[in-house]
Known about the structure:
mainly beta; 12 strands; globular
Amino acid sequence: MPLLKSLDIWECHGLNMIGDLPALESLDVCRCEKLKTLANMPALESLEVKRCGRVEQVADDRMPALKRFWLSDLNALKQLPPCIPSLEKLSVNNLPNWESTFTYMPCLREAHFYKCPKMQTEGWIYTLLELAGYEGQASQLQRLSVWNCPSARLGWKLLQQLPNLIELGLDSESAVLLPSPLPSQVPTFLPSLTCLYLRDNNVDEEVKWGRVPSVGVGSLSTGGIDPRMFL
């Protein structure tokens, strides 16, 4: 099938490898219990791999066109490939053994993480910042959510290095948002933020939220924070 552009594979329990598909642009794989690896797919732009408990490798350097990457319920997966140069959106859900080792993703705009107990978000984002651009260009990450990832430890010091964020979601399992060493009001170092979701966060009352502009925070869930702090 050399000219195949799109492929959905569901509940193929005897499948252990997906071979070379040079023209494939979209692949959705779900509930293939014996699947372990994916082979050469240089034209692939969208990849979803879900509920394949034995998958150990989901992408490699031979997927230079990959833009959308969705991983869910992969018990054996421990790391991503070292380079996904075109990736724009990453969604990672319920990867119990993934440790978020270094991956080069200079085009990343959107990242969502849920229930990844070993994920080290801080190191991952610092790496993203270092390689986001050139000549000091800021990271282009615009949407970030981290839920139920107890090893992430995402704090203000790191978030203020992401000035292009427009949407941010965090919970107390993934972040400790204390004021120190918060130098100024939140809008001054997250100037593009329009949606903020905080759930049961450890946020000190002294955090300087500042005034929300009329075109600023469009959706706010504070999970126990006094909403008057935003007025």
